[in-house]
Q: What sequence folds into this?
């Protein structure tokens, strides 16, 4: 989308849809002298030629570029309110194109960058500026006409906001060039230059934490000269905005999640929605969507509907105030991209009263979901496997309404009452319920049939959803793979039975609306995980509204494991034995070098050839070093080493160790960076663990290695210590040996 311009005229026009980048707490890169406040020019009219070069910036015409105001005049900056500080840069064109540029450093290759700045034009002879902007080799703001924001010498309206299309860095620096193109005597005014950085595995969402604007008054877009929120489109500018502004009448409780501002959508006679176009998505990849939610305190409760790419993530669900200095509530969903862009919308769908929704910190991140939901109608859809191994299986509800129930041969124990007892079979797993889960409901008539009807007959719920509930499983087999299933039924058609379920150890989570499948219909929430060394799992259940999520029962299935086949250490043959010096490793590939993309087999380096072994780690039969050339030498820069393997499902776990010359800057699985800068050094091993990001089918694992200056030896050595994938047993295939199941150590070649 290079060259697409998104200009927001805060005072006079409606904002167009903007391109941007979504990531958590986008890193702000501020160019040197970004507000042009460093220098004071004393010679009118402010040209560089009569003063001195602008600090941090270069130009191609000293007699056409400069700073205003000077100490004696403001000939060029003769209209509009200076965006930052008291000075602006001007770029005058008079028969030839004029440029102002700066080399931006500190970039990361592969990351995305979005340029934001303010622009205006000198009010002179009716001549508009004709501006464009490049970053690196990309045109990020296409050529466009820039008119003065107002007549000279009036200074009451803001400059235009300009947002460039996303730029993907190809190195550690890029030249930023502002250009006023050929034309009559016209002058472009520039100020408040910013660059926002987002990780390579993020979808592109502009202004995801609402820090790019400063609003006044009550914070409505229609107050004063506020205008639309940068990067977002509003259906009702008089009901949407930012807080704090002149005050904070809407964001009157809770701690702002990221930065100092949040967006609000008020219903008062009519509501509204805020939406943005998410870009830089990869078709077929799944993204974890996270945002923080809250509500104005002391007024009516808002209902929210959230969509992505036309898919409804949650509909008409209540959001209650968090109160005091409590954190905002987290909502998490998963979306699989069907195109490179997707519309993301947050709407206040309240229909009465005065209700205001607050939200902040929106981001899309590539992920492999550990959670999913399924509709539950009967035993066949219960997910309970005949012959499966279950550490826990319990039925919740009031006394006499949560009997021992057998579904597909698995006994769900009676755990009725407000303090359910721990009394399970098979592996004897225990549990506790915490928070407000201390109230039972009797008989719930619904649409679930078969033996599952007994599980769906009664439930336990929180007497107050203000405090998060918890479900803690104990007695799990450390290191085992498991599937936790939580059973719920839509109790009534009202909004508000939506909660975020979070593994407190890993922070993996999902937000679920219990009424999503319709009133009286069942929903199963499944979570695939690996038990930690304590054998304990705690799930936090945080309701978005004032009504709790009803729990009818749960089951925990223990899954068997298998060694991941086809995963080889570096520098070995098909039998897992280290290769000789200068042999080619056929299990790994070198896919990029400082010169660009390649696809070549790496060269094995052994101690028989001498330097650099030692000082590199010495030979063993289990692995060997791989390098880009027979002499092990490489030019400075980044090298990407890659191997692939297949999995039957996405629940897997790998531990290993590496040594490197000079640094591993990233370990990437299926395009998602799992570890950033995990270590450096060629004389000792560095351990690593991969427990997410796997997919069913072909998996691609990459190690990104940096070779420092000058040209010299570079290489990578990797050993996998354990590599296991979960296996869901077929009916009747279990044996007593599964009870003693543990992580299977991979053979030294894998």
A:
């Amino acid at each position: 989308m290079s060259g697409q311009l998104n200009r927001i005229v805060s005072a006079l026009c409606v904002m167009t849809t903007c391109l941007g980048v979504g990531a958590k707490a986008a890193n702000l890169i501020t160019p040197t002298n970004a507000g042009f406040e460093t220098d004071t020019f004393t010679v009118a009219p402010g040209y560089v030629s009569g003063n001195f070069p602008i600090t941090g910036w270069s130009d191609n015409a000293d007699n056409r570029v400069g700073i205003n105001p000077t100490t004696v005049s403001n000939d060029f900056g003769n209209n509009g309110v200076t965006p930052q500080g008291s000075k602006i840069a001007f770029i005058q064109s008079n028969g030839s194109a004029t440029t102002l540029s700066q080399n931006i450093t500190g970039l990361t290759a592969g990351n995305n960058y979005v340029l934001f700045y303010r622009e205006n034009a000198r009010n002179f002879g009716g001549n508009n500026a004709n501006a464009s902007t490049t970053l690196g080799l990309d045109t990020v703001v296409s050529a466009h006409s820039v008119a003065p924001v107002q007549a000279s010498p009036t200074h009451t309206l803001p400059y235009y906001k300009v947002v460039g299309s996303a730029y993907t860095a190809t190195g550690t620096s890029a030249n930023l060039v502002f250009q006023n193109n050929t034309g009559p005597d016209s002058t472009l005014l520039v100020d408040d230059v910013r660059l926002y950085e987002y990780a390579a595995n993020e979808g592109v969402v502009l202004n995801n934490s609402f820090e790019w604007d400063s609003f006044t008054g009550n914070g409505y877009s229609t107050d004063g000269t506020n205008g639309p929120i940068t990067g977002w489109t509003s259906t009702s500018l008089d009901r949407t905005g930012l807080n704090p502004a002149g005050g904070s009448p809407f964001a009157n409780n809770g701690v702002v999640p990221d930065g100092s501002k949040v967006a609000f959508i008020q219903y008062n006679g009519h509501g509204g929605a805020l939406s943005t176009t998410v870009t830089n998505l990869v078709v077929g990849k799944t993204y974890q969507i996270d945002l923080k939610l809250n509500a104005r305190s002391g007024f009516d409760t808002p209902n929210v509907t959230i969509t992505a790419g036309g898919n409804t993530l949650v509909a008409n669900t209540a959001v209650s105030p968090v109160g005091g200095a409590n954190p905002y509530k987290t909502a998490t969903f998963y979306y699989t991209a069907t195109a490179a862009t997707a519309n993301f919308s947050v709407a206040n769908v309240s229909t009465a009263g005065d209700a205001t929704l607050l939200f902040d910190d929106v981001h899309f991140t590539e992920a492999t979901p550990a959670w999913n939901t399924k509709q539950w109608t009967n035993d066949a859809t219960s997910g309970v496997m005949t012959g499966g191994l279950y550490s826990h299986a319990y039925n919740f509800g009031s006394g006499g309404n949560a009997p021992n129930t057998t579904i597909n041969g698995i006994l769900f124990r009676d755990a009725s009452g407000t303090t359910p007892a721990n009394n399970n079979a098979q592996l004897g797993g225990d549990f506790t319920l915490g928070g407000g889960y201390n109230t039972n409901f009797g008989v719930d008539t619904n649409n679930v049939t078969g033996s599952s009807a007994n599980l769906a007959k009664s439930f336990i719920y929180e007497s107050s959803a203000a405090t998060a509930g918890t479900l803690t499983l104990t007695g799990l087999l450390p290191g085992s793979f498991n599937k936790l299933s939580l059973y719920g039924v839509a109790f009534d058609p009202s909004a508000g039975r939506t909660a975020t379920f979070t593994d407190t150890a890993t922070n993996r989570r999902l937000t679920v609306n219990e009424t999503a499948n319709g009133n009286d219909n069942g929903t199963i929430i499944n979570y695939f995980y690996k038990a930690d060394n304590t054998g304990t799992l705690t799930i936090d259940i945080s309701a978005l509204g004032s009504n709790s999520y009803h729990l009818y029962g749960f089951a925990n299935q223990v899954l068997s494991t298998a060694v991941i086949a086809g995963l080889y250490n570096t520098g070995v043959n098909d039998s897992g034995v280290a290769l000789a010096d200068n042999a080619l490793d056929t299990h790994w590939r070198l896919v990029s070098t400082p010169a660009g993309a390649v696809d070549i087999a790496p060269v094995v380096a052994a101690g028989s050839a001498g330097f650099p072994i030692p000082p590199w780690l010495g030979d063993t039969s289990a692995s060997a070093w791989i390098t880009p050339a027979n002499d092990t030498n490489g030019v400075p820069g980044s090298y990407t080493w890659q191997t692939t393997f297949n999995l039957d499902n996405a629940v897997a776990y790998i531990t290993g160790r590496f040594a490197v010359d000079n640094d591993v800057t990233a370990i990437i699985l299926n395009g998602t960076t799992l570890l950033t800068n995990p270590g450096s050094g060629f004389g000792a091993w560095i351990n690593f663990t991969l427990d997410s990001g796997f997919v069913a089918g072909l998996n691609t694992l990459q190690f990104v290695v940096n070779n420092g200056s000058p040209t010299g030896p570079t290489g990578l050595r990797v050993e996998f210590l354990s590599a296991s994938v979960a296996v869901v047993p077929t009916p009747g295939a279990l044996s007593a040996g599964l009870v003693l199941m543990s992580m299977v150590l991979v053979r030294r070649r894998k």
The radius of gyration is 30 Å. Residues 1-24, 730-750 have pLDDT under 50 and may be disordered. Helices lie at 452-455.
